[in-house]
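With this grant's support, the team has encoded backbone shapes as discrete tokens. A representative record is reproduced below.
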Amino acid sequence: DIPSDEVQKIMESVENKRGEVIIVPKDSPIYFQLRNFGGLVALLRFRLD
């Protein structure tokens, strides 16, 4: 699991850059798929090189 203070920092950083944070509840069907990615997923606007 990711420490809650680290999650808070990531969320604040995303919101400061006009990003959107979506929290997926544990009872959602997608929850377990996200857990396989480490619990955090990002949709990026620009290609990374």
Notes: The mean pLDDT is 84.
